[in-house]
Amino acid sequence: MTTLNCEMSVHFYQNGKQLYYCDCKSITPSIADPRLAWRASASVSETESIKSIIQLFHENDYILVYNEANKPLGFLASHDMMQALYQSHQRLEAYFEAMIETMDASISMIDEDERTVVWTKGAEQIFSIKAQNIIGKPISDFFPIHMLQTLRALKTGDSVFRKLHQPRPDLYVLINSNPIMLDGQIIGSIAAEKDITSEARLNQELFNATAKVHHLQQQMAQLMPSADPFIHIKGTSRAIKHAIEMSSKVGSTKATVLVLGESGVGKELFAKAIHDTREKSDAPFIAINCGAIPPSLFESELFGYEKGAFSGADHNGKKGKIELAKGGTLFLDEIGEMPLDMQVKLLRVLQEKKYYSVGGTKQLEADFRVIAATNRDLEQLVKKGLFREDLYYRLNVVTVDIPPLRDRKEDIIELTHYFLYEFSTSYNRLIQGIPQEVMLDLMQYDWPGNIRELRNTVERIVVFSADGSVKREYLPLSIYSRKKSEDYEEQEHFPTAVVTLQKELETHEKQIILKALDLEKGNKQAAAKRLGMSRATLYNKMNKLGLGE
To answer: Which pTM was predicted?
Structure first.
């Protein structure tokens, strides 16, 4: 039997496995003293959860606390625990209230009885319902049941992310909704909504503006070819601007360039732009896809061959890609697919600047710059023995990484309208515009095939829109069926593209006005007439856009 004196007037002693405590006031405790009331107690380790400790307080007023060395640290009293929990609750409530009062987003919460428990100022602004009028009342008293995503989350536990919702004919919102869980049970639900009504209208305006921009660009291209080699690379995102900036810097050198990026991101487009930046206008740009040529034909394709070099060869012989690229650029696409034996021969050409054609005896001079591209991890291929390390270091002088489309989703709007104009012109289809829900579907898709897949998708939309009206079901099954089933769990975050539509539109308006002024040699009256507006309207727009007079 051991006595443990822990704190002030509370004492503990242990008899076997049973622990007892005595709340002594003014006497020295003694186990045999009949004046003392020893009561059963409990003990916990210092790492015990709060939930377990609270359950022990149902039957104990004091709980002894041990450290990892099984030595007593002190005790917990039920009244102290209640006070601490109350204070913690008060602090959390203060933080919560301050957060709700500070945010301008629309946040609403309901409890398990469908009563509204949170209604922020943002919700008041969107729905024109004051918090004092809706708090504590069933949310279904204010909205049709079939339009309430919070009720669906409460009843089914379903979650949605950035779902387009139209609570009223004149209102579009993006809604995020989740059930509120406690101990595995749904005790309520929450919805966050963003008003995008103005952005929905801007999408149509942007489509009309883009059509004008492309038309003016075509006219300008006929009169004055662009001096910017990167003009065909569309997008204004930080990721694509960084890639263009890096490529532009490479253009001032003759260094070998390795372009990295997933399939469909536009690696050849970047390679051509780099070539145009650093080579003369008449310099050849010769591309060879290393993954599309059979190994048996690779050497003759690259080095060329003399007449009669092998059975079936052209009687006049054939120039190889290296000779065709003389004075210009040899673009080795999908370099990771090049056979190992050809890697050795290519390395020798890069080092010695000399080579022999197949069947030839005369040594030829090699005069070209190399740009290679791949969607594979060359370092891993080197480790696996599938790519020569010396060739890798020879090619990896300057690296340019092209971002996948999922990392530059804010560019999807511009790219979509660009391709839409291209194919509507090609197929002679008068497309009226892209509905907001279709644009959001495109924005939320992951695009594993990147820009190539987006371009094919837009072409599909144009092909099916025979009457000029774009419908959601014209999307490929990979996009439409995914949206139809409301599988939002693996969606990328919808970036700030929607909220930058105003900026996007202003940028396009500037381009339209500036191009019109260029075409009319600065004559504002003629430019206004070309744009289909009055001279006063043109002046107002120029002032608004910071173009001055």
So the answer is: 0.55
